[in-house]
């Protein structure tokens, strides 16, 4: 675990009510010492100067991240940066010197509709690209960094309102995909930081398409936890689903469910509690992956396998998502009358 992750967990432990929500900030900047004008700037020192923002006396508890102090679980740096940009709530971007990588990441964040949550800091506002001048801007001096947190704090209420407005909106966009495979859950599994919850009718897809990826993700990220909840092969509801899928012999479908469950259980048997598997006996209403702060919802239909139907990726913090998906998973998982532990 990185020092930055430890700091975030410490802050999370102190934020136990809605009035003390955690806001994740990604600091986008050049790394190390760089030439600026006729002198040099230590951008690492600038990042350090921002840390008092994590202790400001408001209901906006902030944790700071930057790309070079995060444990990435993929070798593809650009995908990892995209993951951070999507995950974080707002951004502080140092555009001093118009570093191409910084400008790219600012543009990517703006393209996601997060332009109201970008705070640009710079030593030379006159050098800033024209198309960025509508964003929040803060000028700083490298020899007076002690003033920078207070100058940024003046804009945090506006940023907070933008974040909260999105999370309470009853209308929002989702990413839709023609099939679950096109949604590329494997990329999300690879980048998972904290936990993965999987709710499926059977585990054939996990066995065929995701098992190795999940195992590699756990190997790279020792903090990752996985919970898998699947339909009991002996459930009365298996028969109804088998008929929908055109099975003439329900026993064949039960055998398929049992075989995939046994294989996945064996593959994760040495996980030392980091992977838990339970089977449930209840009408299968959802096929859902909950990966950190994202939800992948897969359509169940009478016309065929869910893996061939549309899938949708939604931010977990959107209004109604927690109740619709997270609470559904937790209720099933904790129902001792309807679930049986397979692997703990």
Descriptive account of the structure:
The chain has 344 residues and is an alpha/beta fold. It folds into two domains: 3-168, Rossmann fold; 175-343, Endonuclease, Chain A. 37% of the residues lie in helices and 23% in strands. It has eleven helices and 15 strands. The chain has helices spanning 3-14, 43-49, 77-87, 100-111, 148-153, 156-168, 185-191, 204-220, 236-244, 250-267, 321-334; strands spanning 21-28, 33-36, 39-42, 60-65, 90-94, 118-122, 136-139, 175-177, 195-200, 225-231, 275-280, 287-291, 294-298, 311-315, 339-343. An eight-stranded mixed β-sheet has the order 8-14-13-12-9-10-11-15, with helices on both faces. A five-stranded parallel β-sheet has the order 4-1-5-6-7, with helices on both faces. Strands 2-3 form a two-stranded antiparallel sheet. Helix 7 runs parallel beside helix 8 (204-220) and helix 8 (204-220) packs parallel to helix 10 (250-267). The longest helix has 18 residues, at 250-267. The chain is elongated, with a radius of gyration of 23 Å.
């Amino acid at each position: 675990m990185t020092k930055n992750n430890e700091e975030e967990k410490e802050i999370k432990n102190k934020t136990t009510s809605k009035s003390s929500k955690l806001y994740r900030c990604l600091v986008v900047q050049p790394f190390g010492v760089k030439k600026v004008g006729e002198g040099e700037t230590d951008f690492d020192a600038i990042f350090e100067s921002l840390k008092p923002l994590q202790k400001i006396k408001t209901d906006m508890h902030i944790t700071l991240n930057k790309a070079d102090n995060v444990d990435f679980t993929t070798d593809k740096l650009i995908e990892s940066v995209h993951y951070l940009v999507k995950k974080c709530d707002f951004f502080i971007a140092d555009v001093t010197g118009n570093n191409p990588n910084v400008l790219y990441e600012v543009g990517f964040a703006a393209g996601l509709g997060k332009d109201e949550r970008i705070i640009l800091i710079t030593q030379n506002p006159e050098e800033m690209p024209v198309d960025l001048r509508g964003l929040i801007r803060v000028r700083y001096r490298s020899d007076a960094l002690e003033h920078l947190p207070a100058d940024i704090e003046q804009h945090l209420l506006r940023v907070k309102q933008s974040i909260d407005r999105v999370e309470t909106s009853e209308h929002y966009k989702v990413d839709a995909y023609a099939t679950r495979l096109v949604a590329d859950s494997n990329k999300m599994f690879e980048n998972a930081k904290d936990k993965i919850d999987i709710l499926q009718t059977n585990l054939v897809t996990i066995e065929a398409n995701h098992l190795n990826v999940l195992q590699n993700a756990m190997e790279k990220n020792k903090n990752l936890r996985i919970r898998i909840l699947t339909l009991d092969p002996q459930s009365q509801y298996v028969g109804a689903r088998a008929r929908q899928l055109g099975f003439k012999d329900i026993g064949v479908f039960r055998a398929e469910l049992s075989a995939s469950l046994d294989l996945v259980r064996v593959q994760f048997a040495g996980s030392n509690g980091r992977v838990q598997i339970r089977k449930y006996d209840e009408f299968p209403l959802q096929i859902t992956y909950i990966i950190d702060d994202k939800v992948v919802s897969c359509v169940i239909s009478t016309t065929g396998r869910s893996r061939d139907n549309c899938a949708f990726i939604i931010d977990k913090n959107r209004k109604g998502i927690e109740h619709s998906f997270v609470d559904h998973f937790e209720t099933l998982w904790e129902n001792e009358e309807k679930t049986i532990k397979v692997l703990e």
